[in-house]
Amino acid sequence: MMLIEHEVILWKHVESEKSQYYKQLLKELLILGYSINAVTLDGRRGLNAVFKRYPIQMCHFHQKQIVQRYTTQNPKSEAGKDLQKVMYSLTKNSEECFKNKLQNWRSKYETFLCEMTVNQETGSSRYKHQKLRSAYASLASNLEYLFTHKRLKELSIPNTTNHLDGGLFSDLKNRIRVHRGLSKTNKKKLVDYYMLNSGKKH
User: Fold this and answer.
1) Could you tell me where the beta strands, DSSP code E, fall in 32-181?
2) Is 110 exposed, middle or buried (0-12, 13-18, 19+ CB in 10 A)?
3) H or E element at residue 16
4) Cβ pair 64, 162 in contact under 8 A
5) Cys-Cys link to 93, which of 13, 69, 98, 195 (CB 3.0-4.6 A)?
6) Would you say 27 and 43 are in contact if contact means Cβ atoms under 8 Å apart?
7) What's residue 183's pLDDT?
8) What is the DSSP string of 144-161?
9) Dihedrals φ, ψ of 147, to 5°?
10) Do the beta carbons of residue 25 and residue 12 sit within 8 Å?
11) For residues 161 and 13, what is the distance between their CA atoms, to the nearest angstrom?
């Protein structure tokens, strides 16, 4: 879905989100004559490649959710607790400061992160703290996209997709829930009507 100034420009009914659908919508948007200054993404795999021509901002809320999914809300290890602290400092620090904190965390727990566990039956080994490694890997891979909104302040890029997730989508889901008895076809009609009139709510 494409949104501008509280107005939904394009949307598509799909069974599951795939990057190819975003490619199609992007192409349609450009054909219509719109220009794109920047995009804020939720970290879905493949989308960075779709929008590689434009400045990309990784949604801070989704980044926090990704890390929390791997470390849980209450990490048991000191490494997990410290990584959570680094994550929570994202909005309070400059890009350089945040990068230093993340690098310092990686250096401090290097040995811990490299601990291995061996399967006694198969003899195969794997990292003991794989989820924590994945949490770090997510932050490290998205690092260049976490501060785009600060580097390009003149573009006023939102650092979250909250307007969609917490506002538009939340309201739409509530309306569909009220009409839970609708057929799939009529639900699509409801969604279409809602999207077409979304800008009139503001």
Assistant:
1) 39-41, 56-58, 116-118, 125-127
2) exposed
3) none
4) no
5) 98
6) no
7) 84
8) GGSSHHHHTGGG---SS-
9) -125, 20
10) yes
11) 20
* Integer Cα distance of 65 and 76 in angstroms: 17
Phi and psi torsions of 39, nearest 5°: -135, 145
Q: How far apart are CA 143 and CA 157, in angstroms?
A: 16
Q: What is the pLDDT of residues 2-24, one digit of tens each?
A: 545 567 788 888 888 889 999 99
Burial 9-29 (b: 16+ CB within 10 A, else e): bbbeeeeeeeeeebeebbeeb
Contact (CB, 8 A) for 160 and 60:
yes
Structure confidence by residue, pLDDT tens digits, 131-189 = 999 999 999 999 999 999 999 999 999 999 876 655 666 666 666 676 677 787 887 77
Place of tokens 């501008």: 4
Residue 103, C-beta contacts closer than 8 angstroms, at least 6 positions apart: none
- Token digits of residue 128: 């003991």
Which structure tokens are listed for 181?
A: 């008895």
Yes or no: say if 39 and 26 are a contact pair by the CB < 8 Å rule. Answer: no
d(CA 112, CA 129): 8
Mean pLDDT of 80-92: 96
Selection from 199, 200, 180, 170 nearest residue 190 by Cα: 180
Q: Which residue has the tokens 């990309």?
A: 56
